[in-house]
Design goal:
Chain lengths: ~400, ~500
């Protein structure tokens, strides 16, 4: 499509509609109806605490990253979704996702309690999946698959259906490389963090940095977010807290230069890991995505090697999450997703579509505000924590 | 990624043309599509259910209008219902009789409270008020620092101290009284909605400052969870309105509809960009179209109105469709178009833009290159590109820092475009002429009646060529571009050559 043509088309459309505006405005002015005050809607059914219907697949704590000294203990039934006291151990999906689970537990309880699978069961299952932000397409696909499975295997009860759902979801999230890789070559490893505004990139770097420092790495945080006011200060506080070093540039400066300097500083000081922050950007902003491409290119040009480009995604994100992942991977080839804020009531179901359609795995999840609350992603635990 | 609802309806309801009334089965077919579209736009499940029930009832009860086909009729109902649900009018801020007017900002982490506090301060300033920003977010590292930086940019004072959030808010209010600021905007710490501790904190802040307005900041990308969030905040704080952020992305913003239904409060403001002035009162009708995938035409038009010289552009468009468009016109219009921001952004707001066009990688620097080439032509060359021979090409290339093949390419593209537009003009001109008359009348002016060169021959392609529907709020609005029948005209596809592909 040539530029000339596009401009011409835009022009024609603008003129066409611009004329119409006068007409519509007139109409608008005269007839603005007062909206009827809509009755507030009570959405989700009251949370029913479902008894643990099923043990689910044995969650193996897949310690993708640094194995922690204390292995995750066996999951116990957690009947009370009480706010967890801040614990020192690695936070567990089941505990931290209790809020998210509560929103679905009404559905899960109802489905699990059914002795036969009827139309209503399917409707409930569909609602539950949509409420988890799994998305229409993925939901339809899942339901279709489950329908044929129910037929083929003669599944009869709601409980069996839930079992099949969990097994299917777990297998779809299946076998992905969820490790955060270090470079084999000489020189520092670079992990870049990208994403839209406000998803928690800087915080994620802070937490991940703390973890890598604790694991014995020497970490440099490069404040590539030169756009948002005080972003470098925020990262600086995290660096201080976690024992990493900070490299920063001027506000409004060139982010690629900051990352490049970060890598150079790491090489000079003998640090082996550079965590590169970038400014939040909407994937629709062509120029900003172009800037990001440059950051990615430049980060590789110095002494360092980029091994991870991680999309930080807020668990509350709806269907736009898939579009984001697509656009960011087109620009900078994502190696993984960090799903943040999963300790709220959001379910983050969009990652299922991101796994399936784009083949980009979730590598870590944020389960709380504490510095230790960023943990490796475990599909079985995730599915089990949501759908039981 | 999403199909516009109107496209879907073509399939479902197109065949019903000519029926006097929609049958229940027809309506149910349509409702299924609407349900899908709304869910894909992240409207909450329960909200969708209630909404569909309302639309269904209306659709069944209504007589079909002759002017619209059944599909359009249903879209019209949906659009009206959506606009009504989102709130018919923009909010009007009533200032406190005893200043200062206090505004409390609440929201989840990362929704953009701090940035939007500053944007709101700028807005109040533009209304002739004297705002004070109070940084009561002592939770996030550097949040207060961020607010101070933004305050400096806006020349709005920022108050904060390292005590506790409730004390800061109260002291901020006292500070405003002391220094005579008439609006106080209190930025609070972000929270996960159900974090009891932080929720309690924001409640105590609210009690301490007794705000005139409590706004919930919501991210337009939020999924199904928006309802949970809004409810939790509404129960604690009694919201007065919602500020919708990140509308400049391509999220459909269904969350807005959910929130409106749940809290029953208007969406007061919307933020449409990163810059501090990209923030304004919310226009519900625009979002309705967007949720349905019909683009954000009104915003576009408003922008266009600001930058385009109306008469001139109309004349240029007419010449374009008559095949009399010159490089000079092109340059003129390009200048104006540039003022509307990046071309990709403009395209993104246009409804019904075919995917090939929308996804075309448009490099705005390319526009500068094209411009340089045209500027290196003599006026005579611009009017009649046929004058340009090999040696002129070389001269133009040298003058614009490009090379002769590029110049040749541009001229070729321009000619192709002219031809195509002429063909289109032949097909669409009747409608354009009609619309001109219509527009002319409504302005109280004589009919436009521009005589477009006679003897037009209707081309033989059967592609349904229509110019965009003139009422952007009308159901068929935004079906303009696809109806140009692009594929049928044999346009170069996205893989087509041309400098346009950066």
């Amino acid at each position: 499509m040539s530029l000339v043509l596009i401009i011409a088309l835009v022009l024609v459309v603008l003129v066409g509609t611009g004329l119409g505006l006068v007409v519509s405005r007139r109409r608008g002015r005269s007839g603005l109806l007062e909206p009827p005050s809509p009755a507030p809607v009570r959405p989700a059914p009251a949370p029913v605490i479902a008894p643990d219907a099923e043990a689910g697949p044995e969650p193996e704590p897949a310690q993708a990253l640094e194995p922690e000294p204390e292995a995750a203990p066996e999951p116990e039934p957690q009947p009370e979704p009480e706010p967890e006291p801040r614990v020192v151990e690695r936070p567990r999906f089941r505990d931290r996702l209790s809020k998210a689970r509560n929103a679905l537990s009404g559905y899960m309880g109802a489905i699990g309690g059914r002795s036969r699978i009827d139309a209503e069961t399917w409707d409930e299952l569909e609602e539950a999946l949509i409420l988890a932000d799994v998305g229409m397409a993925a939901t339809q696909d899942l339901l279709e698959h489950l329908r044929s499975q129910v037929k083929a295997q003669g599944l009869g009860t709601g409980e069996e259906l839930l079992g099949a759902l969990k097994a299917e979801l777990t297998s779809r999230l299946g076998d992905f490389d969820r490790e955060l890789h270090f470079s084999e070559a000489e020189g520092p490893t670079v992990w870049l963090f990208v994403g839209v505004n406000g998803v928690g990139k800087t915080t994620t770097i802070g937490k991940l940095g703390a973890r890598e420092v604790a694991a014995g790495h020497r970490v440099i945080m490069a404040a590539g977010d030169t756009f948002r006011a005080a972003a470098a200060e925020q990262l600086g506080m995290w660096a201080e807290r976690s024992g990493a070093e900070l490299v920063r540039g001027n506000e409004g400066g060139d982010p690629s230069a900051v990352i490049f300097d970060g890598v150079a500083a790491a090489a000079a000081r003998g640090a082996d890991l550079v965590l590169g922050d970038t400014a939040g950007r909407l994937h629709t902003k062509t120029n900003l995505m172009e800037e990001l491409r440059k950051v990615r290119r430049v980060a590789d040009q110095g002494a360092g090697t980029v091994t991870e480009v991680l999309l930080v995604l807020d668990a509350t994100t709806g269907q736009n999450g898939l579009v984001q992942a697509q656009q960011f991977t087109d620009a900078v080839e994502l190696t993984g997703v960090v799903l943040t804020k999963l300790d709220g009531s959001a379910k983050g179901g969009i990652v299922i579509a991101i796994h399936e359609q784009l083949g980009i795995p979730v590598k870590a999840v944020g389960l709380g505000e504490g510095i230790d609350d960023l943990v490796p992603f475990d599909p079985a635990e995730f599915v089990d924590a949501l759908f039981s | 990624m999403f199909e516009a609802l109107s496209d879907r309806f073509e399939g479902v309801l197109g065949r019903l043309r000519g029926k006097g009334r929609l049958t229940e089965a027809d309506v149910d077919d349509a409702m299924r599509e609407i349900r899908l579209a709304l869910l894909e736009a992240d409207v909450n499940f329960t909200v969708v259910k209630n909404f569909i029930a309302r639309v269904r009832e209306r659709a069944l009860g209504e007589e079909l209008s002759k002017a619209l086909n059944p599909g359009q009729q249903v879209i019209k109902i949906v659009n009206e219902e959506l606009t009504r649900t989102l709130g018919g009018e923009t909010i009007r801020i009533a200032y406190s009789a005893k200043p200062p007017t206090v505004v409390l900002m609440a929201g989840l982490q990362g929704s953009g409270k701090t940035t939007n506090s500053a944007k709101l301060a700028r807005w109040f300033k533009s209304q002739g008020r004297h705002p004070l920003l109070v940084g009561a977010d002592l939770q996030r590292p550097a949040a207060v620092e961020q607010l101070r930086t933004l305050g400096r940019q806006l020349e709005v004072p920022v108050f904060s101290e390292a005590t506790d959030p409730v004390a800061v808010a109260a002291a901020g209010l006292a500070e405003a009284r002391r220094t005579g600021r008439d609006v106080v905007i209190v930025d609070t710490a972000g929270r996960l909605a159900i974090d009891a501790e932080l929720m309690d904190e924001v409640r105590r802040i609210s009690e301490a400052v007794d705000p005139n307005y409590t706004f919930l900041v919501i991210d337009a990308m939020t999924g199904q969870d928006a309802v949970t969030t809004a409810e939790a905040f509404h129960q604690t704080l009694e919201l007065d309105g919602v500020i919708l952020t990140k509308l400049d992305g391509d999220a459909r913003g269904g969350a807005a509809l959910s929130v409106k239904e749940v809290v029953g409060r208007p969406i007061a403001f919307a933020s449409t960009g990163e810059k501090l002035d990209e923030f304004d009162l919310f226009h519900p009708d625009r979002l309705a179209g967007r949720i349905l995938g019909m683009g954000d035409m009104l915003t576009l038009i408003e922008k266009a109105e600001q930058v385009f010289e109306k008469e001139e552009t109309e004349a240029a468009a007419a010449r374009l469709l008559e095949g009399q468009f010159t490089f000079e016109d092109f340059l003129d219009q390009m200048q104006q178009l540039k003022k509307m921001g990046p071309l990709s952004g403009v395209l993104g707001m246009m409804p019904g833009v075919p995917k090939e066009v929308r996804n075309a990688q448009i490099d705005d620097r390319e526009i500068a290159r094209v411009e340089a080439i045209i500027r290196s032509m003599t006026p005579a060359e611009r009017r009649d590109p046929d004058l340009i021979d090999q040696s002129r090409r070389v001269r133009i290339a040298r003058g614009s820092g490009s090379d002769p093949t590029r110049v040749a390419e541009l001229i070729k593209q321009f000619k192709e475009m002219s031809k195509m537009m002429k063909r289109m003009g032949g097909m669409g001109s009747k409608k354009l002429a009609k619309s001109r008359r219509k527009a002319g009348k409504s302005k109280g002016k004589g009919p436009g009646g521009r005589t477009t060169g006679g003897g037009r021959v209707a081309p033989s392609t059967k592609a349904p060529l229509r110019l965009p529907n003139l009422d952007p709020r009308a159901p068929g609005a935004g079906r303009g571009l696809p109806d140009l029948g692009l594929p049928d005209l044999g346009l170069p596809g996205p893989g087509g050559v041309g400098p346009g592909r950066g």
